[in-house]
Amino acid sequence: MYDWRDIMKFEYAQISDSLFRQDFPLSRAQEYVEMAIYAAISFSLPFLLGHEQLLVGAAVNCALVLAALNLKGARLLPVIILPSIGAYLAGLVFWAASPALLCMIPFIWAANAILVATIKHFVLNKRANRLSALGLGAAAKAAFLFLSALALLSFGLVPAAFLTAMGIFQFTTALAGGAAALGMQELKRKIA
After folding, report:
1. What is the per-residue pLDDT for 16?
2. What was the pLDDT predicted at 32?
3. CA quadruple 142, 146, 152, 157: dihedral positive or negative?
4. What is the mean pLDDT of residues 146-164?
5. Which of 39, 82, 122, 180 has its CA 20 to 30 A from that of 45?
6. What pTM did the predictor assign?
């Protein structure tokens, strides 16, 4: 008879192991270059495009999915963390910063990590269908952000508009950006 703790340890070990897998091997230098590119794009897009949420969100999610497929371990962190910091700082520069967004930043980090971990686990560890893994990751990210925004709304920390921004928009941009990333990754695999 299996103990649920043993099952949880096994699942944790699999998820932890998947954080150090790649779609195909890259040198450490290639990984650092890709990390810098994904992080720079994710951080700078809010400054360059303003608050075009669908376009910026799709590009950031594209970078997150590419990072999930190509980067290992701690090299994932800048791509997970920098997009929301860039969005907030761009808001300061363009006079559109919101204390509500500041409240959401830790939840956005967690949601980005959920998307990355889901892609890594199901694509690189379980060898699941990439589109199915993307759909699951996008749904998990959007659900987490929506529930986080709902909780913060109940405390009066974010406006009701955040429910749409952190729900269906997040799902849509994760699917669009992720689909673009899967296409780019396929091209990259053919070239490599």
Report:
1. 61
2. 96
3. positive
4. 93
5. 122
6. 0.90
